Amino acid sequence: MAQNELVFASLGGIGEIGMNLSIYGVGRRRQWLIVDCGVSFAAEEHLPGVDLILPDIRYLIEERKNIVGLVLTHGHEDHMGALIDLWPRLNVPLYATPFTAALFEARRLSEPGAPKIPVNVVPLRGRLTLGPFAIEFISVAHSIPESNALAIRTPAGTVLHTGDWKIDLTPLVGAVTDAARLSALGDEGVLALIGDSTNAIRDGRSPSEADVAKTIAELVGTAPARVAVTTFASHVDRIRAVADAARAAGREVVVVGRAMERVIQVARETGYLDGVQDFRGAESYGYLAPDKVLALCTGSQGEPRAALARIAEDEHPQVTLAKGDRVIFSSRAIPGNEKAVARVINGLVAQGIEIITDRTHLVHVSGHPRRDELRDMIGWVRPKILIPAHGEALHLAEHAELARRAAVPHVLVCRNGDVVRLASNGAQIIDEIPSGRLYKDGSLLVDAEARTVASRRRLSFSGIVTVALALSEKGVLVADTEVELVGIPETDAGGALMSEIARDAVEEAFEAMPKPRRRDPDAVGEAVRRAVRAAIAERWNKKPICHVHVLTV
Ligand SMILES: [Zn+2]
Ligand SMILES: [Zn+2]
Question: How far apart are alpha carbons 224 and 227 in whole angstroms?
Fold first, then answer.
């Protein structure tokens, strides 16, 4: 049996939403198939200076010889965003459907200095054999064109890796979820379903993109002055809905933001905006009458450098809004971005601009399946095993419970790094492989376990004191002590200068040392460090980091 043993493991995306990376292994000397390679976005206050979080792939680097390929389910950043940084370390064949491949290439070209990364293009509903894996792409509806579930046939049985999906019978672009194909797969027999859990806590079914388009058309049609709409740049359905709404209202669409321009170009090249009118660049905005323009903007997540945040701060060179204009958030804040989005909304409200969000209008729906849709998937596929993926602990638990109630024989909740054997008698965690996170810090990748970012967080919380002393061989201070404070209040509650407090502490600590000890630079440094920290902590109730340099002269 071990000869054809099939295992599944995740290096990201289980127990969290983001940085999806799953692997499947077959055989005694395992051959591996990688599915997706995504990032998570860092919330600024927890990880100062870190933009992205990537899965730690040291295990895959070790196993590189045994990797048969990497398949992308779709083009969202949480599924392909880590490739530009990580692919060079793996150098394995990459496969994606046309829109995903084109979007990836456009992303890569936008990154200065990114390496050339070849992508093999697989047609929609295509098939691919990589080592012991026969992979079939099955179209599913989602919030980006060309999301694919993968049917992975192996000598030990078939796995359905759902990727991100939902049921939408009337999307504006792209395919509907291929229920017939999924049912046929179920008839053939499916060993395991690895499934999207994002919305497992939400009852019922997702509304359709067509319903959202209707609402947007009404809101654009009744807008008294200028309208701006922001959505996820990759949401081509929504871009189409906005374009249709603008056309019906006699407005020109002006595209604001590079990420949006990039996706629009890719969508036009791949046919997903066929029949949609031409859009204009931001330079046209100022020439159009308020009731003849609609600005389609990036920045739905409150990103400070994106178009909408700059408009809200009145800092955009071409696009301005004023009292009486209407801004539609055709999006929802990804967890962690709520504060940033609120900041943008407050900036706009303060200028008298009307804000419309999904709190009051159906201007956004999620791209993930709610509970009735999850039940449909289980009904089509009828797996022996179900493993919830793509979710935080709560989502996984709810998906698992739903699957048990839907009479799936074996349901297993696992964690990143668990190696799960998938067999007809059930799923079992048999091993653990190294997993973790990397931070994209400037142009470097640093291990999340390294002290770099933790020290930076400490610095941001309590600042730093630097002390420089010059010590003679005989143990006498020979010059004035230098004290520098960064990020520490200038004075204490009584108005005394903190730098003087530190300087006094240095002198007192030095004087308190027995004379022979004063000749030992290390002992002096340590005594001074403790004294300075204690003296400042006494006034401030916070302990700064303290560095002492003892120069011997
Ligand atoms: Zn997605
Ligand atoms: Zn996703």
Answer: 9
